[in-house]
């Protein structure tokens, strides 16, 4: 983890100006995406933002990203359809699509961080609620040789909340990777899976030494709840075998 993206101590993060990373998921009434596709696409969107040249060094988004990472790492997912989606797509940001050739492919647009109370009007009016999504079919087993974001089996989260948590997990993995492993992940297109962990394995995962997301408790779930374990092969090598 490089010094420029290492989080500051908790008390300093709380005292810093608070920023949020906006993500907008496209949910058309007739063709909503599958829940797991939306979670995986949100996680990739966060990684695409963090690795974008505009978010690094002297890039146009770099200062906003630094300010955001110096405070609490907040992410908020809103939904859009039709004209709302077209207006949101006109703002500076990056659209990430899950399997573009698939029907009902999940689309998520990620935007540079904004002050907590300074959302662009095109995004501020979008709804946070209404991101209830389902999987038409049970997702298959994840690729054991690839990155997996394991979601808690004991927490009931809306799709929007779970998308933000998956994004947190991807970000923690990114922070803990070496530059070489980051480059390899980016060049491969950020492959990853999001799956609910087996209940019998959850404690083992949360005590394995892999990155664990502990929610701040702003919405839906209790503060300190473990929501995601980021299981990346490169990080797995640094912990005890799972």
What does this structure look like?
This protein has nine helices and nine strands. The protein is α+β, with helices and mostly antiparallel strands and 242 residues long. The protein has one domain: 3-Layer(aba) Sandwich (Bit1). Strands 1, 2, 3, 4 and 5 form a five-stranded mixed beta sheet that branches. α2 runs parallel beside α6. The mean pLDDT is 89.
Describe how the helices and strands are arranged:
Elements lengths: L9 H6 L3 E8 L8 H17 L10 H9 L3 E7 L1 H8 L4 E4 L9 E4 L3 E2 L5 H4 L23 E4 L7 H18 L2 H9 L5 E4 L2 H8 L5 E3 L11 E6 L1 H4 L6
Helix pairs in contact: 2-6
Primary descriptors:
alpha+beta; globular; Bit1; five-stranded mixed sheet; 242 residues
Mean pLDDT: 89
* CATH topology tier name: Bit1
The tally of beta strands, per DSSP, is: 9
Question: Overall 3D geometry?
Answer: globular
Biggest sheet architecture: 5 strands, mixed
List the uncertain runs.
none
**Can you write the helix and strand succession as a string?**
HEHHEHEEEHEHHEHEEH
The percentage helix is: 25-40%
Cα-atom radius of gyration: 17 Å
Q: Total domains, how many? A: 1
Alpha-carbon distance between the two ends: 23 Å
Strand content: 15-25%
* Count of individual helical segments: 9
CATH top level class name: Alpha Beta
Any idea what the CATH architecture is? 3-Layer(aba) Sandwich
Q: Could you say which structural class the secondary elements and strand pairing correspond to?
A: alpha+beta
Per CATH, the superfamily is Bit1
């Amino acid at each position: 983890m490089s010094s420029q993206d290492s989080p500051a101590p908790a008390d300093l993060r709380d005292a810093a100006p608070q920023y949020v990373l906006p993500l907008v998921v496209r949910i058309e009434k007739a063709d909503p995406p599958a829940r797991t596709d939306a979670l995986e696409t949100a996680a990739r969107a966060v990684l695409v933002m963090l690795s974008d040249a505009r978010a690094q060094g002297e890039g146009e988004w770099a200062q906003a990203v630094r300010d955001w990472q110096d405070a609490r790492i907040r992410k908020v997912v809103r939904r859009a359809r039709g004209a709302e989606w077209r207006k949101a797509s006109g703002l500076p940001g990056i659209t990430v699509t899950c399997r573009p050739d698939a029907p009902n492919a999940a689309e998520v647009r990620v935007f540079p961080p904004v002050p907590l109370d300074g959302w662009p009007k095109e995004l501020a009016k979008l709804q946070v609620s209404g991101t209830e999504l389902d999987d038409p079919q049970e997702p298959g087993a994840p690729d054991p040789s690839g990155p997996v974001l394991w979601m808690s089996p004991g927490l009931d989260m809306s799709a929007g909340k779970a998308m933000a948590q998956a994004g947190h997990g991807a970000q923690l993995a990114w922070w803990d990777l070496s530059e070489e492993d980051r480059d390899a992940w980016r060049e491969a297109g950020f492959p990853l899976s999001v799956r609910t962990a087996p209940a019998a394995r959850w404690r083992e995962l949360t005590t394995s030494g892999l990155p664990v997301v502990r929610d701040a408790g702003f919405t839906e779930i209790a503060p300190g709840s473990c929501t995601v374990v980021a299981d990346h092969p490169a990080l797995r090598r640094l912990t005890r075998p799972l």
